[in-house]
Amino acid sequence: MNLLHFLSQNRAQVLELTLEHLWLVGISTLFAMLVGIPLGILVAHRKGWNKPILTTANIIQTIPSLALFGFLLPVPWLGARSDRLAILALTLYALLPIIRNTYAGIHGVDAAIVEAARGMGMTEWQLLYQVELPLAASVILSGVRIAVVISVGLATIAAAIGAGGLGEFIFRGLAMVDDRVILAGAIPAAVLALLADFGVGWVERRLRAR
Q1: Do 168 and 120 contact (CB within 8 A), yes or no?
Q2: Considering only CA atoms, which of 120, 149, 114 is closest in space to residue 134?
Q3: What confidence tens digit (pLDDT) does each residue in 89-129 have?
Q4: Which candidate, 60, 21, 57, places its Cα nearest to that of 152?
Q5: How far apart are the C-alpha atoms of 37 and 31, rounded to whole Å?
Q6: 119 within 8 A of 126, measured Cβ to Cβ
Q7: pTM of the model
Q8: Degrees, nearest 5: CA angle 177-14-191
Q9: Is-contact 68 89, C-beta < 8 A?
Q10: CA-to-CA distance for 81 and 25, rounded, in angstroms?
């Protein structure tokens, strides 16, 4: 039985696991944006926060994914639900590119534009929301794009703790030594990563053009 036949026979399960995968990636990326963009703004405007925030995000990025799942597993509220644990881990991994790109985008705004805005009487909040964030939007979105692609790949590891997603097929295929089952999880995950990269990249280019 070839791969296409296997996918056809198990299309309901493939769809279910793909939706679980999308849920894990989508919600963790949303949380990472809600945390990472404000932290990036803080780093850009408060130089004293630069080193501790970026160093912490870098350290998190270097922790192997299975080890991070293991560290978080004993936490009472998180350990009770594997999907919560997976979402937190994916959120932590997605922070670094979002924080870095938010900082780079705001830091890269032309100083002359900032001074002109201040000369017009804008407050710091107005300057941030009406000038800096709109001009930095494409760079920030580039960080989100990287975070999404990273999360799609890492979400396959979430199956190791029972959080579902396309990693279920990959781990099952490894246990069965069956390439078809491994590819049934790996190929849809790769397609999701490519589609996310293309889709977010298209929005990023539109913002840059504007």
Answers
A1: no
A2: 114
A3: 899 999 999 999 999 999 888 888 888 888 888 888 888 88
A4: 21
A5: 10
A6: no
A7: 0.88
A8: 90
A9: yes
A10: 16
